[in-house]
Amino acid sequence: MSLIDRLRKGDIESLSLLVEECKEVCLRQLIHKTTCTYEDAEDVFTEAVVTFGEKVVAGKVEDIKNIKGYMTKVCYNMWLNIHRKKLMDESREPDVARFFNEYMDQEPEEDVSGFRERLFDVSGRAIESLSKSCQEIIRYFYLEERRMSDVADMMGFASEKVAKASKYKCFKKLRAEVAILEQSTY
C-alpha cells in the first residue's frame, strides 16, 4: 500500500515514513538553492509535510511517482512564498523610517536634532490637514503601533488588505502635505 493510500485511510503515522524518506534530500536542496539556514529549512520541511498530509486527506493529491522530487519542489515553493512575503513586509512597513532617511539625505549639513524637530513640526501640521480617517489610521499604526488586523477592525474595513491599502494612500497624502508645508514654511 502506498503512502498516499495509507494517508487517505487515516494512517497519519505514515507521515513519519515521508519524513524519513525525504527530509535530508529536501533540507540539502533548500540550503543549496536558497539562503535559508538549517533551522529555517527544517521549519519549511515540517510545514510542507503537514500541508502534504492535509492535501492527501482532502483528496487534492493523486499518486506521485517521485515523492522526493515532489516534496523538494513543495519545500522550495514554500520557501519562495515565505521569502517573498518577508521582502514585501520589509519594503512596506518602515514607511516612516524610510521617509525620515530620505528627508535627512536632502540636507545633511544641518544638525540632526534640529532637523528632527523641524520634521516633527511639519509632520504634525501635515497630519492635522488630513481627513479624520487618515489621521486615525496613521495614529493607530504608527503612533500606537497597532497591527494592521487591529486597524482594520477598529476602522471597520472589510479586511487587513483594505486597511494596508488605506494606510499606504494616507501615508502618501501625508508625504505630499509635508512637502507642500515645508516649501511654504522654510
- Report the structural category: mainly alpha
CA radius of gyration:
25 Å
Helix content: over 70%
Total of helices: 9
| Distance N to C terminus | 78 Å
Overview of the molecule:
With 186 residues, the chain is mainly alpha-helical. It folds into two domains: 3-92, Orthogonal Bundle (Rna Polymerase Sigma Factor, Chain: A); 95-185, PhyR, sigma-like (SL) domain (Butyryl-CoA Dehydrogenase, subunit A, domain 3). The protein is 78% helix and 0% strand. The protein has helices spanning 3-8, 15-33, 38-57, 67-92, 95-106, 112-128, 132-143, 148-155, 160-185. Helix 2 packs across helix 3, helix 2 (15-33) packs across helix 4 (67-92) and helix 8 packs across helix 9. The radius of gyration is 25 Å and the shape is elongated. The relative contact order is 0.07.
Brief summary of the model shown:
The protein is mainly α and 186 residues long. Helix content is 78%, strand content 0%. Helix 2 packs across helix 4 and helix 6 crosses helix 9.
List keywords for this structure.
78% helix; Rna Polymerase Sigma Factor, Chain: A; 2 domains; 186 residues; mainly alpha; elongated; Butyryl-CoA Dehydrogenase, subunit A, domain 3
